[in-house]
Amino acid sequence: MILNYIWLGFILIAVAVGVAAAIFTGNADVLTEIMNSTFSSAKTGFEISIGLTGVLSLWLGIMKIGEKAGVVDGFAKAVAPFFSRIFPDVPKGHPAYGSMFMNIAANMLGLDNAATPMGLKAMKQLQELNPDKQRATNSMIMFLVLNTSGLTLIPVSVMVYRAQLGAANPADVFLPILLATYCSTLVGLLSVCIIQKINLWDKVLLGVIGGLTALVGGLLCGASYLSQSQLTTISAIVSAVCLLGVIVWFLVAAMVRKINAYDAFIEGAKDGFQTAIGIIPYLIAILVAIGMFRASGAMDMLISGIAWCFSLTGINTDFVNALPTAFMKPLSGSGARGMMVDCMTQYGADSFAGRLSCIFQGATDTTFYILAVYFGYVGIKDSRYAVLCGLLADFAGIIAAIAIAYLFFH
After folding, report:
1. Given a cut of 60, is residue 228 above it in pLDDT?
2. Cα separation of 380 and 382, whole Å?
3. Residue 149, Cβ neighbours under 10 Å: how many?
């Protein structure tokens, strides 16, 4: 229901702003731009969905090998003590545990293309436990918010863009992104736990949260002894090794258990095409609304208004130039990447705004995109409080990113 109002709001506000611009400024071209954006956004949504077909087929095939080889079940047992606390409605040993773990692990390594098919599979498995097929369960909401909070340990793609745009030290945003994304994830997790009345004083929960905090602190200390070039190289190698390691692990496990890995891969890959086709209408719907909102100039008006408000308080407004990336990130991953690249191109990759836009890009994930794709894939219409908690995590990530950017770079 909330997504419905947001979707309608984007479109109606875009049309209202366009009509107002045509009447009061005589710029009728804005209406043409809004209309053209519907076609281009629909085309983009279709192309993204079709482009996902290969990746979805690949990873659904790999996941099927892991399932038949028993590796995914092993993951499920390993994370069961923690997941059983934050997903109390999911039976112990359920295959959804393994899929959710693989999805979250891929996101942490910045492997978005690998994370999506695993996430869709996990959501489908959670839907099988859902008594009301059109209403999101507590477990679905928790899983979605963990995705939208965007916990990323190795932001390889952001560092690649910085290198391409001439940054002197492409990895200088590594530590700020790590801190900001951890704040986002922690707030998202805690907000859902509070709403669902999950016992936060449970020893397992405290141990995991404390352990992750210690891990983040250890990574910060270790990274401080590395040069920027070493950090970039190590980050890229770790991502590649982890991804290839998972594939090899699944294949070796299949060999040991005498599973026909090729047949298992084909069986899983066949679902890739159907999955890609299934998300097309939901993806087009959200991208068209976002495209109209941008084309109308409403986004620019919002940014200008925020800059004016902060200027009245005397607060430094250098961060405002990077805000388009922050505002676009919950709506569209590709749109946010475009905003990030545009910001670095306009102000410089090593400018404060350029660096901050990169931190925004890595701090959270695309809340509305994930909501539309994941819930749309399994036919969920009532998202309940998923949007609220997802946006709360995004807001925490944005505030943390700004504070950390001023601490590191201003």
Report:
1. no
2. 6
3. 31
With 0.90 as the threshold, say if the pTM is over it.
Answer: no
Q: Match 């919002």 to its residue by tokens.
A: 302
Cα–chain-centroid distance for residue 308? 30
Q: Please enumerate in sequence order all residues whose Cβ is within 8 A of that of 18, keeping only pairs 6 or more positions apart, or say none.
A: 30, 31, 33, 34, 295, 296, 297
The domain spans of the chain are 2-409
Helix (H) or strand (E) holding 365: none
All residues at 6 or more sequence positions from 346 whose CB lies less than 8 Å from its CB, including other chains = 321
For the chain, the residue count is 410
Distance CA 155, CA 52 (A): 21
Residue type, 391: L
Phi/psi at 310 (5° precision):
-70, -30
Q: Which residue has the higher pLDDT, 306 or 378?
A: 378
| Residue whose C-alpha is closest to residue 17's, from 295, 308, 323, 406 | 295
268: helix, coil or strand? helix
